[in-house]
Every structure is written in structure tokens, then in C-alpha cells.
Amino acid sequence: MKTLLTVVAAALLAGAPAALAQSGNSNSTKAAPMAADSKVDTQTFIKTVPNANEFEIQSSKLAEQKSASKDVKAFASQMIKDHTKAGKDFKAALAQGQTTGSTEPAGPALQPKEQQMLDELKSASGKDFDQKYITMQTDAHKDAVALFSTYSKSGDDPAMKEFAKKTLPVLKMHETHVKELAVAHQG
Question: Does residue 95 have a pLDDT over 80?
């Protein structure tokens, strides 16, 4: 399966926004592996999160419309709910942040790679759609967990660090759930 990007997020850029939604495609330009990084700077975190979040919401809205599988639709509905809340929590943390008060996060527009993945989903249907969506969600959540885990330990903005800590368990739950979906929909 050839998806160009996966975090959700990549969504992670300048290498970073692309990493959250990076896929296993060998043509992808992957950011430095987040899990191996000992630190994620606040600027990268702030630019990455809104893009990744928006990809999660938009791709999940497509899944609610296009998937024929009840479990995929249920997962998509949960993604929309949780990532909408995460977006609100992010904005609140941004407003409270010591180093982020004057920082503008990336707007809700998707980065080119995430837009390309979304377009790929729009053109897919049936089992092909479910497979692409599940693969993208798997990759996005793997990257998101790495990003949030690293930032929650090494971030330099206390409000953003707290946001990362509070959001991480939800992302880990999503990662586990999407792995279960992948098993249920393989082949």
C-alpha cells in the first residue's frame, strides 16, 4: 500500500509536521525519528499539533461518510470527538504558555503531505478506503505518541508540557484501538 505520509500528525514539518502523518512509503521524506529524539522544541510542537489534529478530524469525517464498517465508523467518531477536544485544549494551553503567548500556531490548513493523504482517502472506497484510513491512523498515532511523549518529558513550556502529558494517554488509547482495527481488517 503506497501512502505518502502518515500524525497525526504527521502530520509532523520542516521535517516535523510531516512526521505525525508519515507512512511507510519509501519515497516519504521522514523527519528525524521522534522516538529517538531526546527533545522536541516548543516551536516544532506548536507548528505540528494543529496540522496533525486537523488531519485526524478531516480524515475521520471521511471515514464516517465512506466506510461501510461499523467499527471503523465508531473509531472515526471517537477520533473526531477526541481530536476536537484536543484542539480546544491546545488553544487553551497556547494562551497560558510562558514561551508561546506571542506564537502563532499553524492554521487549520493541512500541510501538502497531509492534504495529499486526504485526497487519497477521498478517492478510495470500500475495503481499500478502510485499509488506507487504518494505515494512516496507525502511522499518525505512532508518530503522535512519540511526539507527545518526548515533549511531555523535555518540553520547555510548562503549559504545553502539561497539555502533552494530559493528551498522551488518549493518543496511546487511539494507537491501541487502531492496531486492533488493523488486525480485524487485514487481508
Answer: yes
